[in-house]
Amino acid sequence: MSLHGLSLLAGQPGQTGGTTFHATNPATGERLEPAFHEASLAEAGAALDAAAEAWVDLRTRSGADRARLLEAMAAEIEELGDTLLQRAHAETGLPLVRLTGERGRTCGQLRLFAQVVREGSWVDARIDPALPTRQPLPRADLRRMLTALGPVVVFGSSNFPLAFSAAGGDTASALAAGCPVVVKAHRAHPGTAELVATALQRAVAACGFPPATYSLIHGGGSTLGIALVRHPATAAVGFTGSHTAGRALFDAAAARPHPIPVFAEMSSVNPLFVLAGALGERGATIAQGLLTSFTLGVGQFCTKPGLVFVQRGPDTEAFLQKLADAVRAAPCGTMLTHGIREAFLENRGRITSVADVRPLAASAATVHPERTEAEPSVATTSARTFLANPVLATEAFGPFTLVVVADDMAELSACAASLEGQLTATVHGTPADLAAAGSLLARLERVAGRVVINGFPTGVEVCPAMNHGGPYPATTDTRFTSVGTAAILRFVRPVCYQSYPDPLLPAALQNANPLGLLRLVDGKPTRDPVVHA
Amino acid sequence: MSLHGLSLLAGQPGQTGGTTFHATNPATGERLEPAFHEASLAEAGAALDAAAEAWVDLRTRSGADRARLLEAMAAEIEELGDTLLQRAHAETGLPLVRLTGERGRTCGQLRLFAQVVREGSWVDARIDPALPTRQPLPRADLRRMLTALGPVVVFGSSNFPLAFSAAGGDTASALAAGCPVVVKAHRAHPGTAELVATALQRAVAACGFPPATYSLIHGGGSTLGIALVRHPATAAVGFTGSHTAGRALFDAAAARPHPIPVFAEMSSVNPLFVLAGALGERGATIAQGLLTSFTLGVGQFCTKPGLVFVQRGPDTEAFLQKLADAVRAAPCGTMLTHGIREAFLENRGRITSVADVRPLAASAATVHPERTEAEPSVATTSARTFLANPVLATEAFGPFTLVVVADDMAELSACAASLEGQLTATVHGTPADLAAAGSLLARLERVAGRVVINGFPTGVEVCPAMNHGGPYPATTDTRFTSVGTAAILRFVRPVCYQSYPDPLLPAALQNANPLGLLRLVDGKPTRDPVVHA
Predict the structure, then answer these.
(1) A with B: how many residue pairs have Cβ under 8 Å apart?
(2) Catalytic residues of A
């Protein structure tokens, strides 16, 4: 399967002739063929205009139709076989076993959204039948459901070349909602993106959807990104990446004549608290689990625990020692790109250069910069130093964590109170610890999107109850998750139909309930048909 | 019951000594006592800080507790009796019968939200129990529910002194969600706001909620409003009013270091299409209904139909004649304020001064400017003129509507295609008309929040299926309604609890389902307890 290096715009290959770029194998430094051609702003705009046309069709397609499309997409991705895995491996340096798992997750979430839209009750259908004889005024027949917002621009992430990229969670949830998708491919894995986009386009064609249901755009820099956000046809934006880039997209969207929502998942240090009882009871186990969690994927997860708070006590030193031992024994790993490694070293350096931040341990293995490697490391400091230096609460995206030692519970609480919005927060405690930690847990609930007890935050399950999102700066819109079935709610808005003749209503709202949805009728959930309406 | 003219800040009266203002009776021009004292920015900030403290308590109060508070608020408002109605009548010029109805709606929506939170399933509880033996990886126990965002700033509207003001829909839905509320009272009815706020504060005290659960602030100009939006403790904003003011609040919120959502309901012309068959079959009835709708409340409803599209045909002239007759026979009415009347005359003038816009009729009654009166009027123009002059699609908030006559269905469609976001859109048609109008209806669904068939858009039912919101510029966030039970969803975000011991979970998520909620367990809706978890 040879790559053409072109954007895929509403089923058509993009133009050549502009700027080109190559992917690089981070594990070898090798330049990977072919050259990729950046799309022009005109091409990108045309793809969005075509997507707006496609939306008119997509938004009224049945859930069954959309489910078939999502399932066909999953099958086409699987059909790419090892070609996809090999290219992703070359472009990202991620191990094949990880990529195999990530492909499973990618296809799994496409199929999960297929289930959701085939079942259909997610549209939150609400029916208040007419009350023609009500006094003092009759009530008109009112029926409401959620409908697709319009074309969604998705920015592929660096760290999930499959599960949060060309056919990732944003794409799956937007298509499920009935929104056409225009993906801006991440420049670090353009070949992976092309393969996936080609597979998706095959599914689009096979299922009889308009070609502009899905487009993939190659390009770079902020100009194209901002142009995509500003384009009048764009109705919403999904993004996973840095705070700087996410905020720039958010600002551009808010400044539009007609503002649109931006779902940017940006930065989180994912604080982890180890309470005194747990430290004594199983400090060594926690240290090992922490090592595994903060070095997973070479620390390149948005849920990586980057801050660990412990209370000074008889077991603190032993815990630090165990953690140091584990870190020293940990291997180095190839990071996704040279730029990510540089940023990691810089951000880690800003943290470790603060006075009273002491290095605790680093991997004993030789680190190979020419393989884009970084070594796991951990540093430690006091709560007082942490509270006095806001930089210590910033994210260093890579295999590093900072252990903050508090003198007492009051200091630990002060640290918790100082935290900004987070994707996750974690507490390790014995039942007695937890019983005494009510106000800490309550604080973490207010600051984080997901609170974990006696576990680790990495490993984000794709399921109905997941919440991957949190107060700013973790995300730009804390009201929504980007992982799990509720992610579909980002790309819809309610429409109310008043006094519609039954046959003109969407099937979801018709009296007979032909789709068998769970609906709110007169305020009561039911799958029964509406009678006498 | 005498008014003190002070803000009510976390249960305490505000300071005197700053700028004061008076309300004016628009029907007489009389200055109404007492003087109202504008709150300082420091006072407003302190109220928000106190609200943030109160939130820590409120967010975990049971639905039953919050329901009792909302019901006590409704009872206390009713307890104000005629005093409230008389003051509102004096401040707004609205007839007592209207205000009596609006009080019913106000107390009704407080009680409706009480029902919603007492029943409790609105929190969208989702439980995915642990799968410890799943391969290749176990699944942790994951439970998610919606929780309160934080303090909400509400800007009272001019045109609903009760139902969208101190204790209006924004206040009711925010309190129901568990968010403390700080209301910026509208300057046109400060005495009404004080009476209501005093009643609410009595309910807060009686129900044992923190005094900062509710505050009312008097003030003016954009400085205070922007300061309220920028205050770090503010988590969300509800607003009903002009596009200029709403956009300014939105921009301020988006420019915050930590952006927050603004739910501004701003402007809508609520296009109404009369198709040819309906025009022939019941043009006179439609003309009469249209007159009633666009002059209701002296045209001061956000759902007032301000644009009417008809197709030129044998029945068009008769329809226009009937409408003209009805308008000529309609009485003049007192508008809410001198400023609103001035803005109405100016905006109507901008529309009627466009070349080829012809006056069709105006009320034959004498208009009394000293009573702040405006006369119902209607003008007409061609679709060609409409399409060439975007000003004709702007809102004139008052008793005026513009009838646009299209030469054919293609022109009608072009008009529909040119429309910006709307709260509502309406179509009158016979079954045959409607059967042929699929693409028009589909277009209106995409542009409006509520589509009405063979009815009129004024009269917004407060119920589960209502949607009062629409694409920009109708509102700043088309994903949410400001009327009906779904309005509570504006003020919440999901929190996911991972691997929590059952007793530490919120009641909504505990295994036994002690609240009896409808929950999504393993993706399936059920009220059953969770077993073996």
Answers:
(1) 212
(2) 265, 302
